[in-house]
Amino acid sequence: MNDQQESALDHLLTTLNVAESEAQLARVLSHRAFDAELHHGRGGTTTIASAVYTASRQAGQPLSLDELADAAGVDRSELGRTYKQLVREFDLDVEPADPHKFVSRFGDQLDLGESTMSTAHNVVDAASETGTRSGHSPIGTAAGALYLAGLVTGEHVLQREVVEATEVTPVTLRNRYQEQAMLVGIDRRKWSPPIASSFDASGLSTEAINEQLDRFAILDLAEDLFASHARCTNCERTGEYGHLLSNHYTQRIEREQCCYETAAELSEQLDGFEVLELDEQIHNTRVRCMHCGREDSYLQLSDH
What we know:
Blueprint (H helix, E strand, L loop, with lengths): L2 H13 L4 H16 L8 H15 L6 H8 L3 H14 L9 H11 L4 H17 L7 H16 L5 H8 L3 H15 L21 H5 L5 E5 L8 E4 L5 E3 H7 L15 H7 L3 E5 L8 E4 L5 E3 H4 L3
Antiparallel strand pairs: 1-2, 2-3, 4-5, 5-6
InterPro entries: Cyclin-like_dom, Cyclin-like_sf, TFIIB, TFIIB_cyclin
Protein name: Cyclin-like domain-containing protein
Keywords: Repeat, Transcription, Transcription regulation
């Protein structure tokens, strides 16, 4: 490593406030990576960031890929691939990141109470016991558990607050907490007061109601909420709120059409695949297998 690369590493470690023991490990990994010329074709900054990420994982205090990518100014997907190459190249023993650590970290950041934090940990345990966590980002699992726990305990935190704290996409947050809610048997209509079959809109604005509605925006408020004219905030489809809520499965990738906005958002839903080119229909979307590198339509590779 040259002086410029050493300086870039020191700056990244300082920016992320990495503990000294982890910083030393990151320096060792960075030098090994450059000596092995892993930076060729990927860039020095990405290689340095991947070493820092690997060190945090090995130390049991994992940073997120988003944190590293933002701090280093590199592409998240490329960072993830470089990390995997580094682990393979040096045959490193890296334990899977524990979502409980992210629950504690982001729960403190959101200033959530003890009851909500305990509930979130229980949700993560339930997801682990049933295998629901398999293939999911530990940060996404923690984000969903924190949001769901707030709904359960009544310490309601807004989705955008969880998204900002954890840096997961809104799509990931919605997918995770909805899966977790079904897992623990929570009735969706009891999650927040405005979701009710008999709805009193007196004293509430449409904006206040929309804060409570998962991925829908009320356009024309009716006396009964379910009869209100609503719009899906992802795909812009409109209709009665009750109909959209019951039949518009915007995140079900098993269906022919999927509600997504960017390739990055859809990649987070497709375990083992990176979306290269979006198509209106999910089965025609072009993807890359993250294990073998093969590229084809999602339909062709979904059973790969």
